[in-house]
Amino acid sequence: MLCAVPDLQRATATLNQSTAFDLAPFDERCAVDLAEVVRTAIASGDKRSGIKAPWNEVKFDRQIAVIAKVNGAEILYTDDEHQAAFAKKLGLKVIHTWDLDLPPEYAQTGFYV
């Protein structure tokens, strides 16, 4: 999360220069897709889609998943279970940090010597 970095300007500059990240906007196409997601949820009788969280959090988590989907993402990396639930509903694969392989230089070797 960017709110946890000590130098926000440096972090965003690094992200913008990286080919591994694409800072995608919440644009008109996202707004239309999000509206359809919300309309479907309301029509089903549960605007929160089963998520027990404040409405503002639900809206924000949906926005993140929709932005990813609209911009062609196939995978959403998140440890937030609510974001994960919405991403899965949109057909995205979800990967958590605990599912990632630990780089060998950080692995504890020789623990049981």
Show the helix and strand layout.
Layout: H1 8-17, H2 28-43, H3 55-70, E1 75-77, H4 81-89, E2 93-95
Parallel strand pairs: 1-2
Overview of the molecule:
- This protein has one domain (24-106).
- The N and C termini lie far apart (38 Å).
- It has helices at residues 8-17, 28-43, 55-70, 81-89, and strands spanning 75-77, 93-95.
- The model has no long low-confidence stretch (mean pLDDT 91).
- The chain has a two-stranded parallel sheet.
- Strand 1 (75-77), helix 4 (81-89) and strand 2 form a beta-alpha-beta unit.
- It is globular, with a radius of gyration of 17 Å.
- It is built from four helices and two strands; from the N terminus they run αααβαβ.
Summarize the structure.
The protein is mainly alpha-helical and 113 residues long.
**Helix-residue proportion:** 40-55%
Would you count the extended β strands for me? 2
Count of runs of 4 or more consecutive helical residues: 4
Average pLDDT level: 91
Return the structural class: mainly alpha
- Which parts are unreliable, with pLDDT below 50 for 5 consecutive residues or more? none
